[in-house]
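Standup notes
- HV: blocked on the assembly model, inputs below
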Amino acid sequence: MAALEVSGLKKSFGGLKALNDVNLTVQFGTVHAIIGPNGAGKSTLLNAFVGRLIPDAGKVVFDGISLVGLPPHKINQAGVVRVFQTPEIFGELSLLDNVLIPAFSHRDGDFRFNGWSHAAEQAAVHDVAKRMLEDVGLYSKRQMLANSLSRGDKRRLELAMCLAQEPKLLLLDEPTAGMSRADTNSTIDLLQRLGDGKVTKIIIEHDMHVVFSLAEKISVMAQGAIIAEGAPDTIKGDARVQEAYLGGAHL
Amino acid sequence: MNNTLAKQDKWLLLGFALAVLAGPLLLKPFGAGYPDLLQKFCIFGIFAIGYNILFGLTGYLSFGHAAFLGIGSYTAVWSFKLLTMNVVPAIILSIALTALFALVIGYLCLRRSGIYFSILTLAFAQMAYNLAYSVLTPITNGETGLQLIKEDPRSVDKWFGVAVADGIPSTNFFGISMVGYSGFYFCAVLLILSFYISIRITRSPFGLMLKAVKSNQNRLKYTGINTRSYALTAFVISGCYAGLAGAMLAVTDPLAGADRMHWSASGEVVLMTILGGVGTLLGPVIGAGVIKYLENIFSSFNEQILNSVFSFLPDAIQHPVVKLLGLFVGEGWELTLGVLFLILIVFVPGGLMQGVQSLQRRVLKGPSKPASSTTQGAH
């Protein structure tokens, strides 16, 4: 069953065709990696999914809902959650608050005026926040301000924030960039554990170790289009991929 | 941890309430223990608390909140004129009408953020100010200001057969006259109530979202939150606070003038909030108190007083000293405020609350607990 169907997606910036007729089908519950050289249009593609940019043409259908033209918060409430390339967190708030916010968003929707209840006494939401922080190993730092974290920790915090929303489709834009090898491996573990095959994941990554550990299917982008698609083993041997992406080097 | 936080807030509220109610005694040694000034402290405290819900929590810097103060005052005076001298309908109507105005103005202004938002709010407030002086003269009575007269209809009062004494009756709370100390205690109770509501909002999931708007609005949008609705709600709430403050100004002194909506009045509440500590619970109240206190002190000084203070100096020195300091008092008291503000922003950018905290830390000499309880009180 297809969770996400993208057809004929186009976006130009002046003369540059950032997305040139992208067609992509992501199966429900799978991990789908999108790889490609810098400037291939991978992040632009994710931007089009989450409402950060509106494509010139084409369709993005998730779970039966057309995402094109919806504001970001509606797309998010539909279950599409994105981890950004540079960590987007609430720097002046504590780690706990950082995770509570998405947990409240998941419970209360895009707006609810609950100005009278006490945020610290909502046990169910706190349980979610606690579990998420424990999952990424940051629970002991929950009272610290998010800005004081290292870059790798910020990435893990953002991941915990995204998971607190119980996403249906998780978009990961280089989730392990800037992490040590050990942190990368624990993030891979976390992503593997996550969702029990119920969460669909699209991952953009340069680290082939991460891609081949996680992905069930790989799409290769170059110059705004998908040039190859298949299981990891097929992609490894594909001559076009090696030409476009790896400059002829062997994996 | 949950309970301790709530407990802290209870102590904070209790301490605050006691300090406010004991205001006449506590401030007597500073020469501020009389009702007129105490009422001002309370009213501008309410104004600043409300302003802080918008500016302190969401980070949206409004430069037009005095417009709501003015709308509140005009509404209250009209309620006194047309309906009754009882303050309750005046307050309710003022809050309702400012809420309506805040909803419309907020909806338009919040289409932009940052400096553009500030400019838009400033433009709206100036528009309100100019309208009050010109086109709306039938409602605002223009330059003279809206005042009570003996012949006002006061239909509700007449309906209930409230006896009309000679002259203009005074505002009252079900018979309790709102002049002097009873007026102060009425303001004090409303200030404590306002403070309580602001604690509740700050600690609520709603308040958390407002802080998130300030911290990273982009992330919040991609976390499924309709950030504009949250900001607009905060805008309306702070508008209601301003409307209440405006009504209270009319309650304690039943007249309303357009100068209440002047941009400098909008700027004053920004100063109060920053001076006390943006985003803290107590800061804005303290900032409002300090500014109103200094206004009172320095604007009452004149050259004669200065001359008598510096009479011990030889004439040749006394004269220039008095001339120089004379610039900073009386009409020029805002110069003193400017200097004070400058010093504060350079040395304690977080406002008085931050100053107090860093002093506390230095005295205790203990390393501060990470992101801890009281110090991060309002975060």
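- HV (later): unblocked. The two ends of chain B are 15 Å apart (CA to CA). Confidence is low (pLDDT under 50) at residues 368-379 of chain B.
- Next: hand off to the docking folks.
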